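so ive been stuck on this for like two days lol. basically i have the seq below and the ligand is S-adenosylmethionine, smiles is in there too. i just want the complex predicted, nothing fancy, no docking runs or whatever. if the output looks off dont worry ill sanity check it later, just need somthing to start from for the group meeting slides
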Amino acid sequence: MRAHHIDRPADLDTVRESYDRVADNYAHMVLTTGLGDIRRHPWLKASIDAFADSVGELGPVLDVGCGPGTVTGYLAERGLDVRGVDLSPRMIENARRLHPRCRFDVCSATELDLADASLGGVLGWWSLFNLPRQVLPQVLAHFARALRPGGYLITATHVGDEDAPRTEAYGGVPVRWTTHKWRPEPYVRLIEQAGLHPVAELRLPADEQVGPGLVVMARRPG
Ligand SMILES: C[S@@+](CC[C@H](N)C(=O)[O-])C[C@H]1O[C@@H](n2cnc3c(N)ncnc32)[C@H](O)[C@@H]1O
């Protein structure tokens, strides 16, 4: 039983089914176009490299919302003790197929059973924006408690004001989810309120393919 209560998002099952439907196209997109592959985006790669260098041997790393495991696999190649979890069973099937040496499990960010001070690092890499606005702080607080003192969170998310309904994605597949966009200042404030100290922020302007984004890395004091 988790000591830390997190509300269950009302749309969790709908979001899971939607990502199950797009999972094969998403994995194919990463492999064929490089979109979503940090190796093809120097600033995203630099952020993940800085995270990996900082975590070093502090402890295990959990990639929450790992999708097909692109970043999980990259961190494993870099020698980190990393595991991926995702809400969507189909995403996890793809992750296991593409990265057979890594460990992956199906789990929602809202249902993780994490011992206090058990992780060296945690990622919410383009995977927390479906969480309702009142649920995200609860998840961040759970992550913060799960980090060892000196451990790191890295998160990337979409920037804006809207709660944008999405009805199709990744090749016209019908989906139903909401992208809760955040302005950088309130997003960073949530991370601070969770008990973490921001160490770096990277703002990414919109390009031809995706809207503006934000990467934040933060550290548990101690
Ligand atoms: C845009 S994909 C990003 C995947 C991966 N992090 C990457 O960068 O390729 C968003 C992922 O978040 C997952 N996701 C959405 N809500 C989640 C939740 N509540 N718990 C865990 N994963 C979630 C989705 O299933 C999907 O795989």
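The chain has one domain: 12-219. The longest strand covers residues 147-158.
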